[in-house]
Amino acid sequence: MVDIVNIVSSGSLDLEIDLESLSDEIGPIADYDPEKYPGMYLRFGADIPLITVYRTGKYIITGANSKEEAYTVRERFLNLLSDLGVIEHPDDDWFSIQNHVCTAEFDQSLNLNALTVELGLKQTEYEPEQFPGLIYRPNSDLGVVLVFATGRVVVTGCRSLQDAEDVFSDLKKTLSEFI
DNA sequence: TGAGCGGCTCCTTATATATCAGCTTCGG
DNA sequence: CCGAAGCTGATATATAAGGAGCCGCTCA
Hints:
- The chain is of the alpha+beta class and 179 residues long.
- It folds into two domains: 8-97, TATA-Binding Protein (2-Layer Sandwich), CATH 3.30.310.10; 106-175, TATA-Binding Protein.
- It is 26% helix and 31% strand.
- It contains four helices and ten strands.
- The protein has a ten-stranded antiparallel β-sheet with strand order 2-3-4-5-1-6-10-9-8-7, covered by helices on one side.
- The longest helix has 17 residues, at 67-83.
- It is elongated and about 60 Å long.
- The protein binds a DNA duplex (28 and 28 nucleotides) through residues 3-11, 34, 36-39, 41, 49-50, 52-56, 58-65, 96, 98-103, 125, 127-133, 135, 143-150, 152-158.
């Protein structure tokens, strides 16, 4: 069982945007400081995913806890642009989920030095002086796993929740004899 | 030799995870 | 005034995006 903690998605409006005037029109929920970063930040509320909009019309949505939330925020964004007359149809772009960050857990603490050997040195990186987690890159190439001595796990780099679930269940299967 | 261009790296954002150093704050 | 406790920011992972800066290469 893995839980989604963050989803990164991106899309394109396929049109050039004047971020300076758009941020003025949107008001305080927009934050644009080109000296600091070329993207304009747009956040509908404190616990609502962040939208970063670029001059080229491309945008990214970070911080969603589900695929549905990412799509809902995208829809709200497109409706806002439609209301402002920036775009004509609130659905004429492409949009896709790019990354799932998930957490999972083994019900026991783990010896990461032994785990490094068990998983194979070429797929594993563990340098506790640099970072306390073990970095495991499965052959499936569906994602990357961070394993901690507490038994907690972070699965990232997955295109879908199914990929993250597959990565974690494969890891559990691989370690079924070990733990 | 220098201009120009392509490629690369870093910045920023979200998010869980854990461990260190360095800093501030507080009590005795 | 000093030790302890708490807090912050670094470390690493993935991913999209545009811009700045840097490096090396090619051609005039």
